[in-house]
């Protein structure tokens, strides 16, 4: 999966997605939803991906779908728990790769959400 794949135009959704959306909209919509990102490494292992990063990229792509659904339902607040303290007990190279990926995706998300692109005067580091 490429880094920019989730920016591509959306494919046509299944016929039942619109029906499900209208049905769900009949009930109360939560004001706040929280998500815990978990299982990306297990997914990568199970799919025999070349790197655990591939699992995190797939997880991020799915998160973008879920955030779009939240936007369509006008959910006012969304919290995403993307990293846990357990992530920092892994090998140093894995932690560095995970933080770089997180940083890159965060900047891409900010650029997608805001009209004015997010720029950094130097390397943005989430480790400092």
UniProtKB/TrEMBL annotation:
<dbReference type="GO" id="GO:1904423">
    <property type="term" value="C:dehydrodolichyl diphosphate synthase complex"/>
</dbReference>
<dbReference type="GO" id="GO:0016094">
    <property type="term" value="P:polyprenol biosynthetic process"/>
</dbReference>
<comment type="similarity">
    <text>Belongs to the UPP synthase family.</text>
</comment>
<keyword id="KW-0808">Transferase</keyword>
<protein>
    <recommendedName>
        <fullName>ditrans,polycis-polyprenyl diphosphate synthase [(2E,6E)-farnesyldiphosphate specific]</fullName>
        <ecNumber>2.5.1.87</ecNumber>
    </recommendedName>
</protein>
<dbReference type="GO" id="GO:0045547">
    <property type="term" value="F:ditrans,polycis-polyprenyl diphosphate synthase [(2E,6E)-farnesyl diphosphate specific] activity"/>
</dbReference>
<dbReference type="GO" id="GO:0005783">
    <property type="term" value="C:endoplasmic reticulum"/>
</dbReference>
<dbReference type="InterPro" id="IPR036424">
    <property type="entry name" value="UPP_synth-like_sf"/>
</dbReference>
<dbReference type="InterPro" id="IPR001441">
    <property type="entry name" value="UPP_synth-like"/>
</dbReference>
<dbReference type="Pfam" id="PF01255">
    <property type="entry name" value="Prenyltransf"/>
</dbReference>
């Amino acid at each position: 999966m490429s880094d920019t794949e989730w920016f591509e135009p959306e494919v046509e959704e299944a016929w039942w997605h619109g029906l499900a959306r209208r049905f769900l909209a009949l009930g109360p919509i939560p004001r706040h939803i929280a998500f815990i990102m978990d299982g990306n490494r297990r997914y990568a292992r199970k799919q025999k991906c070349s790197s655990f990063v591939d699992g995190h990229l797939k997880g991020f792509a799915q998160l973008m779908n879920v955030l779009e659904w939240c936007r369509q339902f006008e959910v006012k607040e969304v919290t995403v728990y993307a990293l846990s303290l357990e992530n920092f007990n892994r090998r140093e190279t894995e932690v560095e790769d995970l933080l770089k990926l997180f940083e890159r995706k965060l900047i891409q998300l900010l650029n997608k959400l805001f009209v004015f692109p997010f720029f950094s005067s130097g390397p943005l580091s989430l480790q400092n």
